[in-house]
Here is the input.
Amino acid sequence: MSLYVEEFEIGRAVTTPGRTIGEGDIALFAGLTGDFTPIHTDAHYAANTPFGGRIAHGTLTMSTAIGLLTQVGLLGDGVIALLNLNWDFKGVVMIGDTIHARVAPVEARKTSRPGAGIVKFGFDVLNQRDEIVQTGAMTVMMKTKDHPVPIKR
Here is the structure.
C-alpha cells in the first residue's frame, strides 16, 4: 500500500516494527560508507570510552529507521524523490539494541508540479527501553491522487 499526498493525515503517527542492530550491521555499514571510526569498529578502543563498547553509526540508525518506515507500506511507489533530511542524535545505539520509530506526517501539500506534492515526516527513533535516541524529519516528493506521475521504465 502506498498513499498519495492527499491521503496523509497530519499528526497521525505510526509505529514501525523493531530491528535489533547487530555487529554485522555495523561492519557492513562501515564497509559501505568507508567509516571505520574506532568507536564503531574497534572493540578494545570502544571499551575504554564512556559508552563501554562499540556503538552503531548515527547514520546507520537513521537509515534503519527510514527503512523501517518503508515496511509499514505508506511510501512504496508513491515516492518520487527524497528532498531533505534534518536529524538530531540524542543517544547512542549499542550492539544488541532494538530500535523502532514513531513517525507522523507533519506537512502534506500539493506543489505546482502536476502530479507531485511534498510530505514531511517527523521521526522519533526509540530503543528497547523507549528512550528517544534520535529525532528528525524527512521530506519527500510524492505522487498526488489527481495526476499520478507515471513511472518510466
User: Anything to note?
Assistant: The radius of gyration is 17 Å. The chain has one domain: 5-143.
